Amino acid sequence: MTQRRWLRFCAYVGVGAAGTGVQYVVLFALVSTKLLGAVAASCIGAVFGAIVNYVLNYHLTFRSTGRHAHVAPRFFAVAAAGLAVNSVCMFLLVNDIHLPYLIAQCAATACVLATTYVANSIWAFKTHTA
After folding, report:
1. Could you tell me if residue 85 is inside a domain?
2. Alpha helix (H) residue ranges in the chain
3. How many distinct structural domains can be found in the chain?
4. Are 107 and 85 contacting, i.e. CB atoms less than 8 angstroms apart?
5. Which domain holds residue 55?
6. pLDDT tens sequence across 24-43
7. pTM value?
8. Phi and psi at residue 21, in whole multiples of 5°?
9. Are the beta carbons of 103 and 31 closer than 8 angstroms?
10. How far, in Å, CA of 86 to CA of 68, rounded?
């Protein structure tokens, strides 16, 4: 990985930490108040986190000059795929393997990070390096 790619990946992880923080706060709040189960709460949190991630990735990570009308649908398509990966991971880890939901969410987050970084790099923000 070149230095430029490494720095962009680090920025992506840093920006993602902000969105992930939002997701985890929503997850914890909804589960601890018993409003929703872990899988549904994680999905709702991921939607809020994706909004934070879009704004920060657009401006900071990728320094996009693309029109929001073009970039946003691509980003949110990638986010929807990430939401699907997150949902499947959470369902399997919480319901089948019986991991505590916060540990399951950490594992799901790692899976989503790997898949969405590549897709956002080469497609959503129209850069040609991963």
Report:
1. yes
2. 3-32, 38-56, 68-91, 101-119
3. 1
4. no
5. 3-124
6. 999 999 999 999 999 999 99
7. 0.86
8. -60, -45
9. no
10. 25
